[in-house]
Write a sequence for this structure.
């Protein structure tokens, strides 16, 4: 049994879903692990992880609209020192995922046909985000 | 340290929570692992995983109503080519879980007294869903 | 490769976020694992796990308000035999996390600068909650 770890740095352009499937796959496939488990971990509280459909880009638009409306910037928050988009970002992070695990079968991620892995940026400004990858298997 | 993997196929009858605790337990207990970690992974973006109360079926009814109302089919979505229930299904998947992990202690899943494992079908039509089980331990 | 497991008992004072970062860190650092993966598992359906900002306490206040409003006690639930706060507790659990994983790098949890680990109590009354910790690595 072996382990490997890697930190992926993801540049975001402000609010929205950034697909990282290709970068994640490339790293996993380079580790020579045939059977195992990949865990992704997002080191932030205003960005998160999501596995979603990667076929129709309209799905991403509707997801972004939904999360915009469920935690609107116009709401009255106690925590507002870091800007109107900060507290909504924490709420959206709570509603989505900080960690995600995907099995590795025959050397490949067990993603379904339409599944892509996304970093979900919740702040207005572009950010540099860190996603830690942990792989265990043999 | 050993690993085992298995794909569970779950037949759904349209929207709703389908309990899979028994099938998952049966597979885990057949692997001869005493101490370890089970990870479940749902290979879909319109169905998800949830650990919830398995005592009163009313809890499932209320959960289904809640998720029906938070992402209603009547809402105006950009993505509507696959039917009015498709985009709500993606949103409900984002709000619940694509992967879940449960420790194995003394050969048994560490589920609490009232916890059951569910596949949450978000589409109207019956589907065949794949849940990958990954077990590591010894 | 080694594993270690431990059950953390968390006393809550009713609804709210209880930080458990220190207790989790202390246990992890005592296991002598340099590279690995920690998984936390909450054995309840009316309490859950969350990784959130641990700097400004106002963030916790706003999160608690958000979850209070998204699943209000005043709503009409079918399941109400266990009190008006029970069904909202199940919904809040579904929207947050029952399991969470955090990589261990150089003997320390890979938490970001502002990240803390919280148990989220969703019932009005104080409870004793169990969080199972599973660590694998070497």
């Amino acid at each position: 049994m072996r382990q490997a770890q890697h930190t992926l740095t993801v540049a975001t352009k402000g609010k929205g879903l950034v697909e990282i499937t290709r970068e994640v796959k490339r790293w996993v496939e380079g580790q020579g692990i045939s059977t195992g488990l990949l865990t992704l971990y997002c080191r932030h509280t205003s960005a998160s992880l999501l596995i979603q459909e990667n076929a129709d880009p309209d799905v991403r638009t509707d997801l972004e609209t939904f999360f915009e409306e469920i935690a609107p910037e116009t709401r009255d928050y106690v925590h507002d020192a870091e800007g109107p988009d900060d507290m909504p970002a924490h709420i959206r992070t709570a509603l989505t995922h900080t960690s995600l695990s995907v099995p590795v079968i025959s050397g490949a991620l067990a993603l379904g046909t339409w599944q892509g892995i996304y970093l979900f940026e919740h702040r207005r400004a572009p950010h540099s985000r860190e996603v830690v990858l942990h792989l265990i298997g043999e």
The two ends of chain A are 5 Å apart (CA to CA). Helices of chain A lie at 21-29, 57-70, 86-95.
